[in-house]
Specification:
Radius of gyration: 20 Å
Low-confidence stretches: none
Largest sheet: none
Number of strands: 0
Shape: globular
Order of helices and strands: HHHHHH
Structural class: mainly alpha
């Protein structure tokens, strides 16, 4: 097996981490968009503005924010994980369970990603239009789901490969780093 030169590996690591951070940043912008639209609707209703369309856009932004932020959340240990069993296992057995869980997640999320992309492609191909207040091609808001799922597939594959190579899962390392700083906020 040919070893990857450290310089190339670190460039790839920075690129992947940047990709996950970009997804998280876009998810944050979606949440900001929701805030702005909800304030606009709250101010606009008493003034007689037509704001019924806001509900459609907010729903699409909610879905985009949820999916686009998943890879970043996963890598940083912010996903809900049930570790009750894992914490009682010896390190070697725990590693085997982590690998098994990551392999199952890779296949499952890959399957979800495939069908999300296929469904969105069909929406584009048949020129499906949103039937609510905002008549736009439905594949446009569906792309948040597709891109977010693709990012998560990449993140889980990335994590699986790292753990197979003997690294500690990043989500475990990030939680340990927070605990070392005395930050137990995610356990509230």
């Amino acid at each position: 097996m040919v070893a990857t030169p450290p310089r190339t590996a670190s460039r790839l690591r920075r690129a992947l981490d940047g990709l996950y951070a970009t997804g998280g940043g876009i998810a944050a912008l979606c949440v900001l968009g929701i805030l702005v639209l909800m304030i606009l609707a709250s101010v606009g209703r008493p003034l007689g503005w037509r704001v019924a369309w806001v509900n459609d856009v907010v729903a699409w932004l909610c879905a985009a924010a949820a999916f686009l932020g998943m890879a970043y959340s996963f890598r940083n240990g912010d996903f809900v994980r049930v570790t009750l069993l894992l914490e009682t296992l010896p390190p070697r057995t725990r590693r085997g369970f982590e690998i098994g869980a990551l392999l199952i997640a890779t296949v499952s999320i890959g399957y979800l990603g495939y069908w999300a992309a296929r469904f969105t492609y069909d929406s584009w191909r048949f020129n499906d239009i949103a039937g609510n207040m905002v008549p736009i091609p439905i594949w446009i808001p569906q792309m948040g789901f597709v891109l977010g799922t693709a990012l998560l597939v990449i993140a889980v594959c990335d994590e699986c490969i790292a753990v197979l190579r003997g690294a500690k899962p990043s989500y475990v390392a990030r939680v340990e780093e927070r605990h070392a700083r005395g930050d137990f906020s995610e356990e509230l």
